[in-house]
């Protein structure tokens, strides 16, 4: 595992700064809209807007080194829900495997959701270093409908140098942090519906 070039204390401070910059009232309204939505697609839409709120806060708070053409995070494991997979298939026209044999079924209860989320994150480590199937010429070909995990994946590095694949022999390290990922992903799973499958994006396509 590669070390971050910034200290753990600085990374924690940066994460707290971003969280503090997220408008709780706006986030609450977006999440409430997701809960009240009648269809899974509508719920996903509002959850995406809430996730974008966090990214906006990071862009306003931190001097993010991310730039167009950097695809480091696109070589990391990426667990997504069946609802997100269907949205990607509809947008891209690509064939969807429903559901993958290796998918985890998320069932009722917040404890089950948390356990399934953690298990899935642990299970997909085999995909570290493999490009996302929607990565084309170093860019995301489905950016407007990209999964929630992608929207929440924010690097806390000060420069893009640690994110260069050639600095890792083509293998990815752990230099990116998804802020409060477990807390938010559990809520997202419950809002989207727990009777569904979760698998790495490479297992869906």
In terms of topology, how is this protein built?
Layout: H1 8-21, H2 24-36, H3 40-61, E1 79-81, H4 82-92, E2 104-106, H5 110-123, E3 135-136, E4 139-140, H6 148-152, E5 153-155, E6 176-178, H7 181-192, E7 196-200, H8 201-204
Antiparallel strand pairs: 1-7, 2-7, 3-4, 5-6
Helix pairs in contact: 1-3, 2-3, 5-7
Give your account of this protein's structure.
It is a single chain. With 205 residues, this protein is mainly alpha-helical. Helices cover 46% and strands 10% of the residues. The strands form 3 sheets. Strands 1-7-2 form a 3-stranded antiparallel beta sheet. Strands 3-4 form a two-stranded antiparallel ribbon. The radius of gyration is 16 Å and the shape is globular.
The radius of gyration over CA amounts to 16 Å
Total beta strands: 7
H/I helix tally: 8
Percentage of residues in strands: 5-15%
What is the SS-derived class? Answer: mainly alpha
- Helices and strands, in order, run as HHHEHEHEEHEEHEH
Give the end-to-end Cα distance, rounded to a whole number of Å.
Answer: 27 Å
Oligomeric form of this entry? single chain
Mean pLDDT: 76
The low-confidence runs, each spanning 5 or more residues with pLDDT under 50, are 168-176, 178-182
Largest sheet: 3 strands, antiparallel
Strand arrangement in the largest pleated sheet: 1-7-2
In percent, how helical is the residue content? 40-55%
Shape: globular
């Amino acid at each position: 595992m590669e070390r971050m070039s910034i200290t753990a204390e600085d990374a924690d401070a940066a994460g707290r700064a971003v969280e503090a910059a997220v408008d709780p009232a706006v986030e609450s309204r977006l999440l409430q809209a997701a809960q009240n939505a009648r269809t899974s697609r509508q719920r996903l839409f509002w959850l995406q807007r809430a996730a974008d709120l966090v990214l906006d806060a990071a862009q306003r708070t931190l001097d993010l080194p991310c730039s167009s053409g950097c695809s480091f995070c696109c070589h990391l494991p990426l667990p997504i829900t069946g609802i997100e997979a269907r949205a990607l298939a509809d947008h891209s026209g690509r064939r969807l495997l429903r559901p993958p044999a290796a998918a985890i079924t998320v069932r009722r209860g917040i404890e089950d959701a948390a356990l399934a989320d953690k298990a899935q994150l642990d299970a997909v480590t085999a995909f570290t270093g493999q490009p996302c199937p929607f990565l084309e010429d170093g860019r995301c070909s489905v950016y407007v409908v990209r999964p929630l995990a992608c929207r929440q994946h924010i690097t806390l590095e000060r420069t893009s140098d640690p994110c260069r694949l050639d600095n890792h022999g083509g293998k990815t390290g752990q230099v990116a942090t998804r802020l409060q990922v477990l807390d938010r992903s559990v809520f997202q799973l419950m809002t989207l519906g727990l009777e569904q499958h979760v698998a790495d994006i490479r297992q869906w396509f």
